[in-house]
Write a structure and sequence with these properties.
Elements (H helix, E strand, L loop, with lengths): L1 E4 L10 E4 L9 E11 L1 H6 L17 E9 L10 E4 L9 E5 L3 E3 L6 H5 L2 H14 L7 E4 L5 H12 L3 E6 L2 H10 L3 E4 L3 H8 L5 E6 L6 H6 L1 E9 L12 H7 L2 E4 L2 H7 L3 H15 L6 E6 L3 H9 L6 E5 L2
Parallel strand pairs: 8-9, 8-11, 9-10, 11-12, 12-13, 14-15
Antiparallel strand pairs: 1-2, 3-4, 3-6, 3-15, 4-5, 5-7
Helix pairs in contact: 3-4, 3-10
C-alpha cells in the first residue's frame, strides 16, 4: 500500500510517499481503509522529533482518519463496510490502518469522510477542555485564540453548542471570515484583544480563555479574565512557552488549567467512546461542522504539513487518501 513516511527528522519537506506492507489484523483491532485523514500540529512536531511521543524511524504519521472497515474480529462491534472515524494515533497517512477497536467510532449517515477526519483530534480535545477541565456553564463568555485554526474553530462551535457567548481572536481578515463562518458571536483582532474583550464584556472580562497559541499574548489573556475565570492551556503554536506570575492568579481568583487530553484518554478506558457519544448529537444536528480549510491528495502531504507549520492554515487541513 501507499503511505507517507517520516524517515528523517528534518521537518515536513522530508516526508515521503512510499510503498509499504499493509498492516495485519491483530486481536482487538479493526482494519480501516482510509478515505480521508486529518492533519494537525502534532503531526508537524513529529516530523522534527519535537513531540512528546517519539516513535522509531521510519514511521507513518497521522492520528485521525475516516473510512470504511475492511476487517474486524469475530466479536467486534464493527462489520466490513461500516463507515467509521478512527483515531490510530499513528499510521493514518496510509491507504489502510490498524486501529484499536475502542478508538474506532461509527460515522453517522450523511457525514462525509472529510468531516469525519476533521473531528477527532480537535473536537475531542476541545470537548475535554471545556466540559471537564474548564467546567463551562451556560451563559459564560469564552475567548478563543487562534480562532481560525482547527482547535479554534472547534472551540467556537462547541462553546456555542454549550450555550456560551464566543469571542474569537484572529490575525487577518481571511481568518476573520473563517471564525465568523464557524459561528463566533464577536471577532476581534489579535492586536489589542485585551481592550476589545474588556469592552465587549462591559469591563468584566471573560470566563474562559481557550489558548492553543501561548507566546507573548499569555499575560494579556490572564488580564482579560473575569473573577474566577479560567485559561485553558492547550498548546504552544507560537513556539514559546509562557511563564506565569502566580500573584496574578491570587489577586484575581483566576486559574491556569492544563489540558492534556492524551493523558486523560490513556488513563481512563472508555473515555473516548463517551466523548464520541456526547458529540454525535451535535454532529447530526449540524451544531458542529468542521470548516475545511484545504484538502490535499496524499502525494501532497509535505505541502499539507507545511501549511500548518507556516501558520497559513485556516480551518482544518485534510489529506485525500482514496
Amino acid at each position: 500500500m501507499r503511505a507517507a513516511r517520516v524517515s528523517a527528522l528534518d521537518g515536513p519537506a522530508a516526508v515521503t510517499i512510499d510503498e509499504v506492507d499493509e498492516p495485519t489484523l491483530e486481536p482487538g483491532h479493526v482494519l480501516v481503509d482510509v478515505h480521508e485523514a486529518g492533519v494537525s500540529f502534532p503531526d508537524v512536531l513529529l516530523t522534527r522529533g519535537l513531540y512528546q511521543m517519539k516513535p522509531d524511524l521510519p514511521f507513518i504519521p497521522g492520528a485521525e482518519c475516516a473510512g470504511v472497515v475492511r476487517r474486524a474480529g469475530e466479536d467486534s462491534l464493527f462489520q466490513p463496510g461500516d463507515r467509521v472515524a478512527a483515531f490510530p494515533v499513528l499510521g493514518a497517512f496510509a491507504e489502510t490502518v490498524a486501529v484499536p477497536e475502542d478508538m474506532v467510532f461509527p460515522l453517522p449517515d450523511g457525514v462525509s469522510f472529510t468531516t469525519g477526519a476533521a473531528l477527532l483530534m480537535n473536537y475531542l480535545t476541545v470537548h475535554f477542555a471545556l466540559a471537564r477541565r474548564g467546567r463551562i456553564e451556560r451563559g459564560e463568555t469564552v475567548l478563543v485564540h487562534g480562532a481560525a485554526g482547527g482547535i479554534g474553530t472547534a472551540a467556537i462551535q462547541l462553546a456555542r453548542a454549550m450555550h456560551a457567548r464566543v469571542i474569537a481572536v484572529v490575525s487577518s481578515e481571511e481568518k476573520r471570515a473563517v471564525a465568523e463562518q464557524a459561528g463566533a458571536h464577536h471577532v476581534i483582532a489579535t492586536d489589542g484583544f485585551l481592550a476589545a474583550a474588556k469592552e465587549l464584556t462591559g469591563g468584566r472580562g471573560v470566563d474562559i480563555v481557550v489558548d492553543p497559541v501561548g507566546g507573548d499574548r499569555f499575560t494579556d489573556s490572564l488580564r482579560c479574565l473575569a473573577p474566577e475565570g479560567r485559561i485553558l492551556v492547550i498548546g504552544f503554536t507560537a513556539g514559546s512557552i509562557p511563564e506565569v506570575k502566580v500573584n496574578r492568579l491570587l489577586l484575581g481568583n483566576i486559574s491556569v488549567v492544563g489540558v492534556a487530553w492524551g493523558a486523560m484518554w490513556q488513563g481512563e478506558p472508555g473515555y473516548l467512546r463517551a466523548q464520541w457519544k456526547a458529540i454525535t448529537p451535535l454532529l447530526e444536528s449540524g451544531a458542529i461542522d468542521p470548516p475545511i480549510g484545504s484538502s490535499h491528495p496524499l502525494d501532497e502531504v509535505a505541502a499539507a504539513l507545511a501549511e500548518i507549520d507556516e501558520r497559513r492554515a485556516v480551518g482544518k487541513v485534510t489529506l485525500r487518501v482514496r
